[in-house]
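Exercise: predict the fold of this chain.
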Amino acid sequence: MARGSGSGEREREGAATVLFHVLGPLEVHGGDAAACRLGAGKPATLLATLLLQPNAWVAADELTETMWPEHAVPVSVRANLKTYVWQLRRLLPDHDGQPRFERRAGAYRIRVRPGELDAHRFGELTADARRAAAANEPDAAATLLEQALRLWRGRPFAGLDTAAARTVSSRLEQQRDEAREHLAELQVALGRGVDAVATLRAVTAEAPLREGAWVRLVRTLHAAGRRAEAIVAYRQAREVLSTELGVEPGAALTEAYRLVAGGTPSGKVRRELPRDVPLTGRAHELATVMRAATGLMPVVLVDGMAGAGKTAFAVHAAHRLAPAYPDGQFYLDLSGADQQGRPDTAYTLERLLRGIGVPAAAVPSDVDERSALWRSELADRRVLLVLDGVPDGGRLAPLLPAAPACLTLVTTASRGWHLDGAARIALRPLAQVDAAALFRSAAGRRALAEPAAVAAVVRRCGGLPAALRDAAARLQSRPQWTVRRLADELDDDPCRTLTDTVRRSVADVCRRLAGAEQAAWRALGDLPEDFAAAAAAPAMGVTAGAARAAMEALVDRGLLEVVSPERYRSHCLVRHLAKCAAPGTGPSRTHLRDHRRVA
């Protein structure tokens, strides 16, 4: 057991804490970090066999079969095992002051602390990398994976040719290939296309039957503008699959080749996200999105009343997560009604398919076929979708990816439908502190000098982000105004002071209300902020049961909040707009003053 020339290996990250190196020829690194390669003798075989199951008891009979597989077992086998254990015990440091090897009747085991076995260290680093990627830290994730992969020196447990060793070695090599493919995805996302190609070429050279690695290699070469190399890679993959397995390339590899041969000419990945804007007071909701992105069905449904900032929230979250989805980020506005020009599902699917690189001539005419092709195209990709203003689940279903590596963020003004397995986030008006912070950041220095007036503006806007931004914009356009003047203007007539953003959004919702729901909506203008369902019945001229049903419909539309089973709460701007919409009334000063008194 001579000292080897493995000094270069000890400089590998983490090598100072790793005692046993099995990701290649078996080595032991002592306290001075000098590598000792044990060779192919019986002590090395004994140690490697025990390290296949660290901290577990291994029967002496199993050790005997491993160490003398094709030879007669010596009569002194028990004594020989004790001798080899004694030799190893002299070589290895103790385990927390206790013997490194333990023996009981008919079995031995080796004690290994966390971090002492490079195979375990590799697993810890790759798990940390997955967590970093899920937390939108691609740089950190790539660094961790590179550190993990540098632990490898060759085939695991090299020289130990047993069924157990082959099983463990195969599992570890599969984990290494998965780590390299993940690293390549991160390298692409970080703009390191050359490194990604090198990483994937290493996988396809050492594991040529991993079709998924060939798919990524072809797509990565194509995205880098290296079309000829992408075609050569496809042909190599096809030859390997045909020769070794007698099969043709699967759907994903075929689609990758079709993209190279006749897809998007530029090879550019679509990145359609609108401009990002800062958010205030949505940390908990953002954390929910980040957790959902690592789930088995990564879909997030964001609802809330008009002006709550659903679109801004979804777009901001998408920008945070975009590096983890290198194959494309799509944004589609599905709001409005079909008869008012909303693109239908067939058109939307065609747009998505062409955006992902499917040639126009290859897009099916049937909607179901388009949906199926869309899911197939995403099977081996990491794509992020933002679907804004989705009216119902029926409209959403054909657009949803089936691949767990894709993420879909959905916004809707309706609470009357759900999606199985999706995380749901209800965006409510901002709390006083967060709303004031948002207004101050948008309004500028004048807001700092009038905290009481800022609080008044926040109250007049009801903490609604869209209204607060509108109010700040109005102040910015009126250099002569004070914040107090703005608060007074809002108190006098919010519709005159704010833009029509919130009013138009509420009007779009109200146009789709049925007769009883319309009556309930208009009744909000004559009801206090917090009211019982029974109190709404006289204002609507219906029974308490009918009033309750109509109010629940307004809850589903995002126009009301439920306080308790029998009580509801309306937003101040919604009440104002309802009063303005009442038949035979206009926004006169007397009307508005009376309305404020009721509210």
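Check your answer against the key: The longest strand covers residues 299-304.
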